[in-house]
Amino acid sequence: MSDLSNMRRLARGQAAWDAMEPDYDDPPVPMSVHMELVDKFFKVRDQLAQLLEEARDGGETLNRIRCCSGDRLLRLCNEIEGIEDDE
Predict the structure, then answer these.
(1) Whose C-alpha in 12, 13, 15, 36 is 20 to 30 A from the C-alpha of 80?
(2) How far is the CA of 75 from the CAs of 7, 54, 62, 80, 83, in angstroms?
(3) How large is the average pLDDT for residues 18-35?
(4) Rounded to two decimals, what is the model's pTM?
C-alpha cells in the first residue's frame, strides 16, 4: 500500500469518528465512587508491596537455611521490581 492510500484511509476513519454522536446515555461517575476506586487501588498496591517484601524475606531465609534454595524466589522478586541480575 502506498502512503497516499494510507493517508486517505486515515482521513476516512477520522471523518467517521468526528461524525459520531456522543453517547450521553451513561451518567458520569460520581466523585465518591471515583475516590472509592482510587482508595481500593492504593490499598491493593500496598498489599502487593507487602507481599513482595515478605516473599523477599522468605527467599533470604531459605538461602540462610540451605545455600541457593531461595535464589529462584529472589530472582522472581527482582523481576517484579524491575531489578536486573548481574549474572
Answers:
(1) 36
(2) 47, 14, 13, 9, 9
(3) 81
(4) 0.55
